[in-house]
């Protein structure tokens, strides 16, 4: 199979950045539903939501356990759907019906940040996969996807965002084998799921869609911190909600995410919150 490889740079990111209609309204820029959060990992969905809000989406709604309603105080721009959580603070099986009742109102669903590895996580992901919505599968939802692979063969925009360990688990390969030849396994994925966009996160990030691979070769240790992936998911949500093109959205998202670490901070000092604070400067630089 012939593979076309392209390096991601500023020029390509500028070409892929969604244009904003000056006469647009909030509906023009996407209605996004983020599913996740738990009492143990409330910060994950907060970071994803803040990055999404600063990445151009029209409206954001969080589908979260009622036990973490307190995050509203730091996310007053977002709407909330509060679902009953179980005794451990995760979304439970009752929340699946809540999702079925609400999912039709949104253009894009992002699932996984702080969701937890539960039976309910699998049921929620299955509901999202069976819908006709654009879908971003991140974090714990990638764990849930292992038993739902057949539902990946859907005709709607779908992006999954595993890091190397998550992808090894999904693919059923040994970590050492994946590290030795990540492109081979990524290409296998592209053959098996030609309609799905894969963002394989590592020091060298790869975006794979069918027979195309895009590579960002800009390693930065500042990004190697908990919460960094949640920020990427939020950026990706904003880009896909506006562009409706999963490959272009992925190219911009991985480039912008990387650039947030490349401004003024020492690698030791940078945090996911500071990455979000840097988004304005990165987006402005791409528009000029």
Structure description:
The chain has 288 residues and is an alpha/beta fold. The chain has a single domain (4-286), classed as Ribokinase (UDP-N-acetylmuramoyl-L-alanine:D-glutamate ligase, 3-Layer(aba) Sandwich). It has helices at residues 10-16, 42-53, 94-102, 119-129, 140-145, 164-171, 175-180, 182-192, 228-243, 246-259, 272-286, and strands at 4-7, 31-35, 59-65, 79-83, 108-111, 134-137, 158-160, 196-200, 205-209, 212-216. The protein has a ten-stranded mixed β-sheet, sandwiched between helices. α2 runs parallel beside α9 (228-243) and α9 crosses α10 (246-259). The radius of gyration is 18 Å and the shape is globular. The chain starts with a strand and ends with a helix.
Most strands sheet = 10 strands, mixed
Question: How many domains, as an integer?
Answer: 1
Strand content: 15-25%
The average pLDDT score comes to 94
Q: CATH topology, what is it called?
A: UDP-N-acetylmuramoyl-L-alanine:D-glutamate ligase
Oligomer: single chain
CATH architecture: 3-Layer(aba) Sandwich
**How many E strands?**
10
Helices and strands, in N-to-C order?
A: EHEHEEHEHEHEHHHEEEHHH
Strand order, sheet with most strands: 1-10-9-8-7-6-5-2-3-4
- Sheet/helix structural class: alpha/beta
Shape: globular
Radius of gyration: 18 Å
Helix content: 25-40%
Q: Would you state the CATH class?
A: Alpha Beta
Q: Ends: how far apart?
A: 38 Å
